[in-house]
Amino acid sequence: MDTLGFPFFTHCTQANVSDDPGLLEMLSHNLDYFRAKPVNIPKITILLDNGYHPETLSLALQKLYPQILTKIRFELSPKPTKAEKAALGKTGFVVVATRWVIERSNAWMERCKSLVNQAFSP
Predict the structure, then answer these.
(1) Which has the closest alpha carbon to 56: 41, 43, 35, 74?
(2) Distance between CA atoms of 3 and 121, rounded to whole angstroms?
(3) How many other CB atoms are there within 10 angstroms of residue 27's CB atom?
(4) Highest-confidence range of 32-36, 50-54, 80-84, by mean pLDDT?
(5) 26 and which of 11, 44, 55, 58 could share a cystine (Cβ 3.0–4.6 Å)?
(6) Using an 8 Å Cβ cutoff, are 68 and 43 in contact?
């Protein structure tokens, strides 16, 4: 998703596919998009939650397309520490602005399935 929450790609996997393999599958299906992207414009930032492993993803993607890291970068979504939560007077789950953009976009796609299905139908 971009910074406004509009998706670049969507990909559905079986429930037993974990974060890293699912993302690798989606990106590998769309490598032509990255091959066509010029290197003289800013890298695409792929925001990840803490269930992903950027080093593992980077190594796997470089095997598929060696120049991909000249066009993308991974950024882990911030995860507040217990001390940071305590300073805010909060416990448990705390909303992080960058994560909210992704969750909001997922909700839009869920709510507007008929529009999404029409946009991606062959």
Answers:
(1) 74
(2) 25
(3) 22
(4) 32-36
(5) 11
(6) no
* Residue 5 Ramachandran class (φ > 0 left, ψ -120 to 50 alpha, else beta): left
Supply 76's token pair.
């882990």
Q: What is the pTM of this model?
A: 0.71
pLDDT in tens, 58-92: 999 999 999 999 999 998 888 888 898 889 888 88
Total number of residues shown for the chain = 122
